[in-house]
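Morning run. Coffee first, then this:
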Amino acid sequence: MTSFIDLHSHSVVSDGLLTPAELVSHAASKGVRVMALTDHDDVAGLAEAEAAAAEHGITLIPGVEISVTWRRRTLHIVGLKIDPQSPRLVQGLQHIRKGRHTRAEGMAESLLKKGIQGSLEGAYQFAKQGIISRTHFAQYLVAQGYAPNIRSVFKKYLIKGKPGYFEYDWASLEDAMGWIIESGGIPVLAHPGRYDLGRTNMLLLLEEFRHLGGVAIEVVTSSHSPDQYQEFARLAHQFGLQASVGSDYHGPGHSYMDMGQLPTLPSGCVPVWQDWGGRKLWFNAVSVLLLRIEWPSIL
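And here it is:
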């Protein structure tokens, strides 16, 4: 059984392949009825996505995915139902975007030491909207024949300990959470299974996340295994956190899973959307059948 809700996706405004309007159209074609656009450190695509969502009869949740440094590790915090015009959020995201260029210069310098030339200019050619990310470096390296695909180029060049990695301090966890909360948004810990923290650090992170006002963690996301769905469902329950779902979709050939293919939350999870619009939405087999008949507004 698949879910009709997807609360994590990317457009060309950050490192996705589709424009916001194209992304919404794709989501609609896959049966998604509620989606969040959560571009990295930028909200510039939300107006276009909102207009497209109205055309396709989709409910768009305004979102963002903020880059965070926690104990010298990079994490991502998704903000759902944010106000994209909130002054502190806007200022904070602007600061992070400036830092992305600094990191990109460092990555290019590291790659040059390994004999890879032109990576900064090449990466910016793939960054259609200006914001620069590791994905754009990966696309350049694949195009130049250094690896056969995006996943392999990350493992070979762009993760910690590899030639193209450059350590950079993003927003603090406290600041990122503060920006989201002040904007009226809901902080969600994105794809926790990708961080390789070990159990002790994961427990410490979840405790701090909750203390700072964290509301939910992504339990079902495309980079998690079925065992991890269960693991993070248990941790959500342990810490009194709600559960979110998101494909983390970046475009054809650049994602672990397509939109509309996410399984439903494990039994016992409290969905992050449970009180949106005053009605509890439980995405199990029964509710999915009901949703085929009637989809309530959740804004």
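Residues 98-158 form a domain with the DNA polymerase; domain 1 fold (CATH 1.10.150.650). Good start to the day.
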